[in-house]
Amino acid sequence: MNKYKKLMGNTLIFGIGSFGTKLLGFIMTMLYTRCMTEAEYSTADLIYNTVNVLVPLVTFSMADAVIRFGMDKGYDPRKVFTSANLSVLIGMAVFMLFTPLVKLNDTIGGYAFLLYIYCYFSCFRQMASQFVRARGYVKLFAADGILTVLVQVISNLILILGLKLGVTGYVISFIVSDVCSLLFLTAVAGLHKYVDSCFIDKRVMGEMLRFSAPLIPTYLLWWVTSASDRWFVVEMVGDTENGIYSIAYKLPTLLMLVTTMFYQAWQMSSIEERDSRTIGKFYENVFGAYTSLLYIAASGLILLCKPLTLILTGTAEDSRFQEAHIFTPILICAMIFQCFCQFLSSVYTTKKKSVNSCATAFVAAVVNVILNFLLIPQYGVWGAAIATAAAYFACFAVRLFDARKFIFFRVDYFRFLVNTVIIIFMCVIYAKQPSVYWVGLLLGFVVCFMYNSEAVLKTLRKILSRGNARKGNGNAAG
């Protein structure tokens, strides 16, 4: 199959599995903001983000190794999956020793046991889902995503809306969904056949650890960039402001929704084409269309920022959650560059350059921490949002230079500049809120759409023409 068509096909499958699930998760925010106070939602959000950073730490970032080595025909998949699960057991045993330290935290200490159980099943579920994807079961991977979120929604309705369990119900719903997912994947894909003590191979596990070990600090550094600002806001300006900041992050995550569907397929294509002589051209064509679509989507979200936030938070005039929309555009800008960083990380995965991934993530973390200290005390939530945007941009600039040393592809810098200026213009207009600010936002969206639509169509025509030219010559380079 033509590599472009395969990429588009896999993206569509992942999209079916991800779009509905992410959309349902997005809609559930309306339940959280109606059934929890700002402080409760802040606590729930902190637990969620804490587990997200703990999972790669306690698993030694083996999920990335499962994808990279699981797709490599030079390795026995049984040894790969057994090594991954063994790493989880070791990591969770070590984490258990440190669980009492969680109880010392005033915000999430009361949920230490639940946090451990949540982390435990999330780790095993992640290994299972990534292994299924590595084996090429993309439809099963997508179906699992749908099942997981449906179970989570039902659990939320029962535990939060029905039983009024608040933060406890929020965490338990994630545990239940992870357990159901793990059982589903094991039963359908027969994952139990891939795990046995006889498949333990020190050489394979050693190679996987050498690849994944540098990703441990990388994930920690990304957590510093993406989630530590919530802790800074909590400590410097309070739980209520952090609850508002957490809601402001919800719309920007829609961009990650779009890019996650694509990235899951792109990562597989990049690994499959790692030895191709034309992989640079492949990157150039795909990255060109990707960036244009991302800027169009971002400008559209900024345009619809206020009504979408009102839908999320309800229309109650006394709800401080409604203040969140004013901070959202700058976080959308930050998310654009996070998406670019994610795309470029595929270079490091494909070429097994995980050390470089860590080094570039370090740049973002340092910028974020310094600016958080400087800006949050004086500007509050605004300071956190600006620090996050600056950090992702710094990482993108460094990573764009560094990653192309391993896979070179041309980049249209002028297009980047014009698009970024348009987005910043829209952010400024939204922040100042002049009487007819929506006119400026509409103008920004129209200009962005017109400027980028031709680039998208051009790339699509190029892809289709290449596909047609290769009929009957499926092995030709593209």
Description of the molecule:
It is a single chain. By secondary structure, this protein is an all-alpha fold. The protein folds into two domains: 36-213, no CATH class; 221-471, no CATH class. 80% of the residues lie in helices and 0% in strands. It is built from 19 helices and no strands. The chain has helices at 3-35, 38-58, 62-70, 77-102, 112-134, 138-162, 166-189, 202-212, 215-226, 228-237, 239-248, 253-272, 279-303, 305-313, 328-350, 354-379, 381-403, 413-432, 437-469. The radius of gyration is 22 Å and the shape is globular. Mean pLDDT is 85; it is low at 469-478.
Keywords:
single chain, 478 residues, mainly alpha, 19 helices, 80% helix, disordered C terminus
* Most strands sheet: none
- Strand content range: under 5%
The helix fraction, in percent, is over 70%
SSE string, helix = H, strand = E?
HHHHHHHHHHHHHHHHHHH
The number of distinct structural domains comes to 2
Q: How big is the Rg?
A: 22 Å
End-to-end span in angstroms? 11 Å
Mean pLDDT over the full residue set: 85
Overall number of strands: 0
Number of helices: 19
Which structural class is indicated by helix and strand composition?
Answer: mainly alpha
Summarize the model shown.
This protein has helices at residues 3-35, 38-58, 62-70, 77-102, 112-134, 138-162, 166-189, 202-212, 215-226, 228-237, 239-248, 253-272, 279-303, 305-313, 328-350, 354-379, 381-403, 413-432, 437-469. With 478 residues, it is an all-alpha fold.
